[in-house]
Design goal:
2 copies of one chain form a homodimer. The first copy, chain A, has 289 residues and is an alpha+beta fold. Chain A has 8 helices and 16 strands. Chain A has helices spanning 24-28, 46-60, 70-81, 124-129, 152-163, 208-219, 231-235, 267-287, and strands at residues 4-7, 10-13, 18-20, 31-39, 42-43, 87-94, 111-118, 131-137, 168-172, 178-181, 185-189, 194-197, 223-226, 239-244, 248-255, 258-259. In chain A, the strands form 2 sheets. In chain A, strands 8, 9, 10, 11, 12, 13, 14, 15 and 16 form a 9-stranded mixed beta sheet that branches. Chain A has a 6-stranded antiparallel beta sheet with strand order 2-1-7-6-4-5. Chain A is globular, with a radius of gyration of 19 Å. The interface between A and B is large, with 51 and 51 residues. Strand 3 of chain A pairs antiparallel with strand 3 (18-20) of chain B, so a sheet runs across the interface.
Chain lengths: 289, 289
């Protein structure tokens, strides 16, 4: 089946879809993006994702590329053109094409790209066994709260993890505290039963799944502590897990080859994963006709 | 006159030249680049620029896109197609197009882009009066020695400078030391007559003009000190200046509205600029038939 992409106002065959060599996304990484999960044909947590996109654009002083009411219509159209029921929706906005110069161009039209694709579900073995994580120094810039296209350190971190046979790389700041994974947020459950994650400062992206869990955790009877934790704390935690739009909740059972807890996925990660799947179905259920 | 670009193996009209929406340069900033000055139709310091490009690619584990002997031929062809005598040559290499995933793709072909354009000479008034600089916190990642496409903090810094009526933003690290400008290296002449610039650690790009000056300075009778200097030292310096491929040497006469020295371009900056222009003509003279 052909895939289709929305590129700056037009729906094009994905394989033939291109952008100008002068697009500032291509030459400077001058733009922001979002990835949404698609479940039963609907984008999950669309409101939260679009809120964050608009925040990223405001921080970068990039104008919104289309009317706010038009954007969901475009997303829907890309989903249906690609017949995606379970998968991903990818949105990218750049400052547009202009003669190369660091300074913002006087007249450039922001460029919106939307693509979609099917994604198979996370294999059951991953949920059953959990994933391994390595630690690496956090080498990123000071504004990781902006979901920008400057993703080279994330690419290098993820590649390093994969080369080490791990799923993710947890980045550690100069104070020895874990910031987040290369594309996921990091969580631990401490010995005294607190659920701990770094506050959403400028050093991490405030993940949408992270935000949903923060709201759910107290209802779930968990004591929530938004505070940075060290790599040492993570390794001696009762449980560790990671969250993201595409992974939802994944138990972390090894960090730098050190088993976490008894080395098996723990009840908090498993419970939160189940809870989120339930919420997801409820949310989509409300949207379905 | 139409401009032409070399894009992944083909010479295309610049205006119509495009790249895949799946190019990793566009989605991750996953690539490196170089900008060379063109003088009398020849790329200046081509050997040094290509050396640095190959180093950036090696650091990012991106394969070289074309044979090393072929690259100068492509550069020459782009210059002649565009009839550029005085101007710029721009080279960009990305990891290529692949389905979006942070991890390096198994089979992607690195993409080479080459463009060229004419640039008018620096206006004499800029040389006569010098330029103003503002200081900003250095928010960039930990590997600024790689000339990568992750340029968002540089873009934001340059824009902030322009909005403040300045030419450049000097970035200051958490220890209060100047790293470099958003697209230029930073230099001062201290009260006791030393020429000071930051050593080429991971916090700065080792500029080609910087390298040429380091070799020239001693011959020029200057005492060279490669050591980080603070913003305070810069403001109380006898002279300050910046260097880059496109600016060569520009006197800095104000930092955050504080006049440097007597507020006029000093003899070291002016002397080095003259010296570099001489060298440039000698170098090109040797290449001309």
């Amino acid at each position: 089946m052909s895939r289709f992409a929305y590129v700056g106002g037009r729906y094009l065959r994905h394989r033939a879809a291109t952008v100008s060599i002068d697009d500032r996304g291509f030459q400077f990484g001058d733009g922001a993006y979002e990835v949404m999960a698609v479940h039963r044909g609907f984008p999950v947590d669309q409101v939260l994702h679009l809120q964050r996109l608009y925040r990223s654009l405001a921080e970068l002083q990039i104008a919104e590329p289309v009317d706010r009411r038009a954007l969901p219509v475009i997303l829907d159209r890309v989903l249906s053109l690609n017949r995606v029921c379970e998968g991903l929706l990818y949105l990218q906005v750049t400052r547009g094409a202009a003669r190369r110069d660091h300074v913002f161009p006087k007249a450039a039209t922001p460029m919106l790209l939307v693509t979609a694709r099917r994604v198979p579900p996370v294999p059951p073995v991953v949920i059953r066994d959990g994933v391994a994580v390595i630690s690496i120094p956090d080498q990123r810039w000071a504004r990781c709260d902006i979901k920008s296209l400057n993703l080279l350190p994330n690419v290098l971190g993820k590649q390093q993890a994969r080369a080490a046979g791990a799923f993710e790389a947890w980045q550690v700041d100069t104070e020895g505290m874990v910031t987040e994974g290369a594309s996921t947020n990091a969580w631990i459950v401490t010995e005294d039963g607190a659920l701990m994650t770094r506050p959403a400062d400028h050093a991490i992206l405030n993940g949408v799944t992270r935000q949903v869990i923060l709201r759910q955790a107290t209802e779930f009877g968990l004591r929530l502590v938004e505070r940075p934790f060290s790599l040492g704390q993570a390794k001696s935690a009762t449980e560790a897990f990671l969250t993201s739009t595409t992974s939802l909740v994944l138990p972390v059972t090894r960090i730098d080859e050190v088993p976490i807890g008894d080395g098996r996925p723990g009840p908090v990660a498993q419970g939160l994963r189940a809870r989120l799947l339930l919420l997801l179905n409820e949310e989509i259920g409300r949207q379905s006709p």
